[in-house]
TrEMBL record:
Source species: Streptomyces argenteolus
Record's protein name: FMN-binding negative transcriptional regulator
Xref: Gene3D superfamilies: Electron Transport, Fmn-binding Protein, Chain A (2.30.110.10)
PANTHER family the record matches: PROTEASE SYNTHASE AND SPORULATION PROTEIN PAI 2
Matching Pfam families: FMN_bind_2
């Protein structure tokens, strides 16, 4: 990942937070000499028992050609995109500026390992639980509400894997190179827009410039 020092993130907690908030990532691998991308949801496991950077768990269709790469243990990358937005020159307090794009992203690298049946079932349970938690106070849906024979049929069509994280790259580009008054003007502009995504960008603009803004 190209990330100028001003925007590069070395904070593990910050990188983990982005993955957890935007867990639908893109798994990339080399298949028959060509890059191949697969969009899938991930579960992030943190804590020293999962290595210095943690690990990811996920599953994908058994027919996906990436499965062969996973079985070989070749290095793959999972990419996660956080809040992002176009920045219009009209949103600055000063003159003159060009349009740009603010965004956050984390890239994760590691060598995968296929899971056994028990681990696969646990991955499914954990993934469902993580997503159902986002819908509270609704009563969580659980896998045990499906007849066991149907669960087993479904599992014949998927392959689950874990990805111990060897290294991570993070970029959080949110106006750190701009004047305080310009960042404040951008925050105000995004706060005025009636959408959750705009509010998230405004939050990131403030978080990454809080010391300067006071």
């Amino acid at each position: 990942m190209y990330a100028p020092p001003l925007y590069r993130s070395e904070e593990l907690a910050q990188q983990h937070a982005l993955i957890e908030a935007h867990s639908f990532g893109m798994l990339t691998a080399t298949v028959d000499g060509r890059p191949h991308g697969t969009h899938i949801p991930f579960v992030l496991d943190k804590g020293p028992e999962h290595g210095p950077h943690g690990r990811l768990r996920a599953h994908l269709a058994a027919a996906n050609p990436v499965v062969a790469v996973l079985a070989e243990g070749a290095e793959v990358m999972a990419a996660f995109l956080g809040p992002h937005a176009y920045i219009c020159p009209d949103d600055y307090a000063t003159e003159t500026h060009f349009p740009t794009w603010n965004y956050a992203a984390v890239h994760v690298y590691g060598r995968p390992r296929l899971m056994d049946e028990e681990e696969e079932l646990r991955q499914l349970d954990d993934l469902i639980a993580a997503e159902e938690a986002r819908r509270l106070p609704k009563k969580p849906w659980t896998l045990d509400r499906v007849p066991r024979e149907l669960v087993e049929q479904f599992r014949t069509r998927i392959v689950a894997f874990e990805l111990p994280i060897d290294r991570m790259d993070g970029i959080f580009k949110f106006g750190q190179n701009k004047k305080e008054e310009d960042v404040a003007a951008q925050i105000a502009s995004f706060r005025d827009r009636p959408s959750d995504s705009s509010a998230r960008v405004a939050d990131q603009l403030y978080a990454h410039n809080a010391e300067r803004l006071g």
